[in-house]
Amino acid sequence: MKYDLIVVGGGPGGLMAAKQAAEDGLKVALVERKKNMTEISRSCGEVFYIRKLSASKAGMHGDGYIEPVSLEVQDYKTVFHFPGPGFSIEFTGAVKPYINWIEVAPNKTAVYRRKNYIWGYYYDKEAFLETLLEGAKKAGAEIMPGTIGLSAENTKDGVKVQVRGPSGDQTLEGKKAIAADGTSSLIVESIGLNKKRKVLGPPMKMVEYELEGTEIDLPNCSWIQLCVPSVNRLMTVFVGQRAGERMFMATGAEETLQGMMNYPTFKPWFRNAKIVKKTAVTAGGGGVRTPVKEPVEGNVYVIGDAGSPIETWIQGAVASAYMAVKAIEKELDGKKGAKGYINWWQQAFYFNKPEYWKMVFGMFALANAWQTDDDVNYLYGLIKDKVGVPQIMIEQNLEQIKTGRPELYKRIKEGYAQADQMMAMATAP
Amino acid sequence: MKCDLIVVGGGPAGLMAAKQAAEDGMKVVLVERKKNVSKIDRACLQTFYIHKITASPEVEAGKSRADGYIDPVSVELLPDRCRFHFPVPGFSLDYEGSYAPYYHWIDLSPSGHMIHRHKPNDKVWALFYDKEVLLAGILAAAQKAGAEVLAETIAVGAENVSGGVKVRVRDRSGERILEARAAIAADGINSTIVESLGLNKERKVMSPPIKIVDYEMEGMETSLPKFSMPWITVPSLSPYGNYGICLRPEGRQSLWVMTSGNLVPSELLDKFMKYPTFAPWFRKAKIVRRTAASAEPGLRTPIKVPVTGNVVIVGDAGAPVETWIQGALACGFQAVKAIKKELEGQKGFPEYVNWWQKAFAFNDPHYWKVAGVFPLNYICTDEEVDYLYSLFEGRIGCATGMIAKNLTLIKQQKPALYDKLTKTLPSG
Question: Chain B contact for A59, CB < 8 A?
Fold first, then answer.
């Protein structure tokens, strides 16, 4: 047996797994599709979430990775702490705080979801991946860039991974493997875990522009969501930070980005803006699926987005990598580790909780209900001086909406009923 | 007699000392002038410094070096609070009040030329935090651990006696003597304890009395990047000190006026608010609070050996200007550790003295070499400050540091200004 561990995928999860396992003395191989492994070619929010606030009435908890994390600002260094699993990562790349989260209506009515405290950080994901990659290499992991992990097969005492690299196809053999190949994971498909997952909807697409020279007249350090039904009735446009003075904007379709840049209210923001980079991503190649419930199949461990409906966040990917490696090390020592990892996975991610689906569908219910720009102006106008999650605050103002806009009220109620049906489907055994 | 420890002064250093001593099992009494101990009635920036960049021309642009407390510190942002870490002394403090990040530090000239001390939009280099909330938390912890707090009590003087110390205090019912095995002087820059022990005799006064007034405002709208701490040099308005702007809770900001001699702070404020570059910032501004702080008779050289007999000096009581809140907290902690050792028959004081001399920039001769260099307010006109800042606009670093590195260029372009500047250089 050549390797103790084969890691498929070199994103945050895979790199963390390779680094941790190699540092712990395992013989590790990592395969990654890209030649330039740390270059980000797919759209990503690049946020380290400290305080998590979901749209659920239950209040403060995660949309993605639930366990508390913290970020320590030291002199010219940032340290990400993961007290749940029990590790820390040092980082010297750019970080910028997010202090506000603002949802903006077509007439520029702004509702602050979060205001005047640091709830998260933009961090340079490429620099973060480089940090992990360097750590993995230094610890002796064998890194194989430009190599795709095609499939995995459990054998009696290990696992065989089919890979295709610059010199052709080959089979890698290891005692254990980690599937860290993201939301459209080939490894998860090949070991049959997708058969147990329900498809909830079409793949989620995200198109992103990185911009220079934006002139946004809202407070700095804000995560901004633009809600304009006449541009796109169902998708909001996210605007956030990138390194230096750059910003990004992202949504489901490029014409929506263009539409927003030309929408009269927001056009002045982009008067002198230049698009310097364009990326896109498709989450859930075969459709958005329910999460993998038991992310261990034989000798293959699933981590990060490979087992999630959409995203575990970077921090969840890294945490699951650490936990999977620790479980694998136990198993290799002849102890029980797999069950512990499965239990942890089920507790650590919000998408494994029914409330998560209520939140997701509740958001869509509202987006389905508002049809015109004026609807959003009206709804956000009702709550504009409050700080909180718009979906929740709107729900608390239903009586006022019933009198003020009976038609809209009816559509919101219908939306909630649909959401309940979707919810029942998603959480059915 | 007698308690183990009397702490004079209930600011950050004194409260931290009382908390630590009580938690370590000492019988401790804290005396504080104010009725509401943790209430802040004097001007304070209320900043937690993480990346520090000094005016030292010998420091490369972007490299950090402390003005006040040198030991590294860090701030950890947790889901529901901040935690300030002091890894050298070895303690942490939780804080649940409001805060705001600083991520620009700007030197600004009269007509608005900007020099950034840190690469903009890259890192949080400091936090504004609410000192009252921090102090209230430490006070509560001190009392919970059994510290006795005497509010509205002034310490008049201290005297070393065999095996302990006597502290004379005055409250509404008159004067009395408190006795303890040791005392901590934490009564700030104009410390009566330090004076009563004769420690000021060895200190030189280096400046005239200095006064700082903090005007907290609502509705100030600067044209600067958000989350900035600008230091503004306008010689025609204020020849003795800069203006500064700092963050306050709920989006408020404070304008700082530094002055000396006969200049009236309110007039300096008024002139600033009418100065063409800055007037638009104050169109909607309303002053909501005014606080002041002063150093009399002026700034003194630091106390070299901050222990005399059984009395330990902490925080600003032994400093020329300020140890910063973080330095004061560290002092309080370290002093208690030293006293505890001494009370247990070990040597604790030499360690404290040694730490004090290394932990603060003002104890480094290099600090004084650069501290007085290029007092632009005093030697330049507004136009000259504009010229100097325009040379370095868009570059990262400290204005005076960059001036020092580019004297040749200035000599070529403005020989008279060069002469004025170089006259302020230390002769060695």
Answer: no
Q: Where are the domains of chain B?
A: 3-41+134-205+300-363, 210-295, 369-423
The pLDDT of residue B91 is 97
Question: pLDDT tens-digit profile of A61-76?
Answer: 456 888 889 999 988 7
Higher pLDDT: B18 or A54? It is B18
| DSSP string of A153-169, one letter each residue | EE-SSSEEEEEEETTEE
How far apart CA A295 and CA A307 sit, in angstroms, is: 7
Question: Among partner residues B64, B75, B79, which is closest to A72 by beta-carbon distance?
Answer: B75
Return the domain boundaries, chain A.
3-46+124-200+286-352, 204-282, 355-427
Q: Please report residues of A whose CB lies closer than 8 A to that of B225.
A: 220
Residue range B289-304: average pLDDT? 88
CATH number of A3-46+124-200+286-352: 3.50.50.60
**Domain A204-282 grouped into CATH 3.30.70:** yes
Nearest to B72 among A74, A99, A219 (CB): A74
Please give the pLDDT value at position B331: 98
- Coil, strand, or helix at residue A125? helix
Alpha helices in B320-396 (DSSP H): 324-343, 349-359, 365-371, 376-379, 382-392
Q: CA A122 to CA B49: how far, in whole Å? A: 21
- Give me the pLDDT at residue B61, please: 42
- A92 contacts chain B (CB < 8 A): no
Q: In the predicted model, what is the mean pLDDT of chain A?
A: 91
Pairing of strands A168-179, A300-302: parallel
Residue at token pair 């060695």: B428
* Secondary-structure breakdown of chain B: helix, strand, coil percentages, each rounded to the nearest 5: 30, 30, 40
Give the CA distances from residue A340 to residues A324, A326, A328, A380, in Å, rounded to whole numbers and listed in that order. 9, 10, 10, 45
| Burial class, B343, CB count within 10 angstroms (exposed 0-12 / middle 13-18 / buried 19+) | middle
Q: Determine which helix (DSSP H) or strand (DSSP E) holds A117, and give its type and residue range.
A: none
pLDDT value at position B250?
83
Q: Which amino acid is at A304?
A: G
CATH of B210-295, one of 3.40.50.300, 3.30.420.40, 3.30.70.2450, 1.10.10.10: 3.30.70.2450
- For residue B41, what pLDDT is reported? 86
- CB pair distance less than 8 Å for A68 and B120: no
Query: Which homologous superfamily is B3-41+134-205+300-363 in?
Result: FAD/NAD(P)-binding domain (3.50.50.60)
Contact residues, chain B to chain A, C-beta under 8 Å? 50-52, 64, 72-80, 83, 85, 98-101, 103, 120-124, 225-227, 250-251
Instruction: For B181-218, write each residue's pLDDT tens digit.
Output: 999 999 999 999 999 999 999 999 887 888 899 999 99
- A68 in B contact zone (CB under 8 Å): yes
